[in-house]
Structure formats: structure tokens, C-alpha cells
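A quick word before the example. In earlier lectures we treated sequence and structure as two separate objects. From today on, think of them as two lines of the same record. Here is TetR/AcrR family transcriptional regulator written that way.
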Amino acid sequence: MGRPSLAAQRRRQILDAAARSVARYGLAGSTQERIAAVAGMSRSHIRHYVGNRDELIDALWDHVITPYFDATREALAGRTAEERLPALVDHLFGPQLARNEDDLVIESLISGSMHDVRLRGRIYDSYARLERDVARTIREAIPGCEAAESLRLAYALICMAFGHSTLAPLPFPASRQTGLKELAMQLLASRAAGHGTGPGASGTG
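And the structure line, produced from the sequence above:
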């Protein structure tokens, strides 16, 4: 078996350094020179292995967000349609999404996208894909749930989960997290009942 690609190693080293820089100095303060210094490289290395600033920011976004989306898919893998909704809620409100330094990077990039149409489009594409994945999970678990409704539910779940993650560092009682998770399940259960499926659904006799 051959050695791992040096280019892949260098690229990972640069993106790790970029994440540390953005977490500490913000997006605007993370120049290629500063990222190069954090990585222990020259600016020419940054351009050689990753590209210009736009390409670096795009690669950084993928670097920090992809593991979260992959983990969401893995949390649902191998489960029946009925098992996926509870598993999805457990994942969205569980320790897997506990706050860490990556959140500072993600928030800096989202904030930066307010003034960068190109970056905003890229971030939107990522979250829209997550929204579609969650909506598909909802439709598979709730037969009869239409696409528009499943997208609204998916968006609500994502907002609840990410809002909770944002406030997690504050000293709210642990019951807040439990209550929000229960509220998410109640929301899904009420929609399932409306479509005659899932817990609490009424039969026709």
C-alpha cells in the first residue's frame, strides 16, 4: 500500500490551521498570511495546496460542515422508517452536536456570508441539502406527508436544533434541552397523527 498523499496531508494541515485561525480571529482577521503562519507554512503553500482566498473559504466550509452532515446520515443508517424519526431527534439534540470550536468557525462563515453573495449561496446549498435529507426522512416515516409540509417540519427541526446548540454554553437548566427534544417529538407525532400514522394516530375502527 502506498503512502498517503503529501498533498492531502498538507491540505488537511492548512484547513485545520484555517479553522483555528477563524475560531480565534474571525473570518476577516484570517488572512492567508495568518493562516500560513498558524500552519507553519508560507503563503505560497496555501495557494499551491488549496488555492486563492475564495477557494480556501469554500474548502474550509466543507471541512467543518461535512462531518456534521455525515454523522446525521450515519445516525439514520440501517434503521427502519419508523425508527428514523426518534433517531433523528436523538441525534439533533444529543451530544453528537454538542458545541465545540467548529461552531465558532461555522458561525463566522455564516456571518461573513451576509456580505458575500458567493459564500452565502454555498452555505445555503449545504443547509438546503440537509433540509431535503431531513424532509425525506419525515416523508418516509409519515406516509401521506406532502413535500411542502415535510420541508417546513425539517426546517423547524433544524432551527430548533441549531438554536439550542447556539445557546448551549449559557447556564440554562438541563431540563431546557430535555423539554426542547420532547417538543420536537411532539411536533412530529402530531403531524403523524394527522396523517393517521405513528404514535397517537387514530384508527378508523
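Notice the following. The domain at 1-51 is CATH 1.10.10 (Arc Repressor Mutant, subunit A). We will return to this example when we discuss secondary structure assignment.
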